[in-house]
Design a protein that fits this description.
CATH topology: Rossmann fold
CATH architecture: 3-Layer(aba) Sandwich
Structural class: alpha/beta
Number of helices: 8
Helix content: 40-55%
Strand content: 15-25%
Largest sheet: 7 strands, mixed
Distance between the termini: 28 Å
GO molecular function: adenosylcobinamide kinase activity; nucleotide binding
Radius of gyration: 16 Å
InterPro entries: CobU/CobP, P-loop_NTPase
Strand order of the largest sheet: 3-2-4-5-1-6-7
Number of domains: 1
Number of strands: 7
Shape: globular
CATH class: Alpha Beta
Length: 187
């Protein structure tokens, strides 16, 4: 199953979800997506310090695409996937779409498997795709299709506001929030 929590950067989405998961699972999986660049070092360090030591953690930037696709995600009851959009944008921009050329359909199949799983809950924490306006039309279409597919498979989509205020939103509202009106109309 997939639950999406969307909101602006650095307002406490990750802390909110991590605290929820801590109360129900001592052995969750945390999937980190940020590259180890200077601009992200503080954020990465804060996240590492507050995660329980009993949680497993994988860093997508340090994995080959085939390792990601074959990782046993479904062996966990709870998986926290923090900012998949950063990883996807990085793969499109920095790696000349190698990830998507090689494993695009496998990536969507993986999310299909997670979505129908009764034993695994994936908490997808993400922010609006502001950076995607710099991509060409084909890249935008690919990214849009990925997140459109994930959002439509989600059991629940919530928008998180600072101060632990959460409201449930529809798929259409999530797509609108995630991509913005102007960008979606381009597709």
């Amino acid at each position: 199953m997939i639950q999406c929590i969307l909101g602006e950067r650095e307002i406490g989405k990750s802390i909110f979800v991590e605290n929820q998961v801590k109360t129900i699972d001592k052995n969750a999986l945390y999937i980190a997506t940020l590259p180890e660049w200077d601009m992200y070092r503080d954020v990465i360090q804060r996240h590492r310090q507050r995660r329980p030591s009993t949680w497993d953690c994988i860093e997508l930037m340090n994995m080959l695409p085939c390792q990601i696709i074959t990782y046993p995600f479904l062996n966990y009851r709870n998986v926290v996937l923090d900012n998949l959009s950063y990883y996807v944008l990085y793969q499109v921009c920095a790696n000349d779409n190698v990830f998507f050329r090689e494993l695009y359909s496998d990536f969507l199949i993986l999310f299909d498997q997670v979505a129908i799983s009764k034993n695994t809950m994936v908490y997808l924490i993400d922010t609006p795709l502001i950076q995607w306006k710099f991509l060409d039309k084909d890249e935008k279409k690919m990214i849009y299709q990925i997140f459109f597919s994930i959002l439509h498979k989600a059991k629940k989509i919530e928008k998180y506001y600072q101060g632990n205020i959460v409201c449930q939103i529809t798929v259409e509202e999530a797509i609108d929030y995630f991509f913005t009106h102007e960008e979606v109309s381009v597709l």
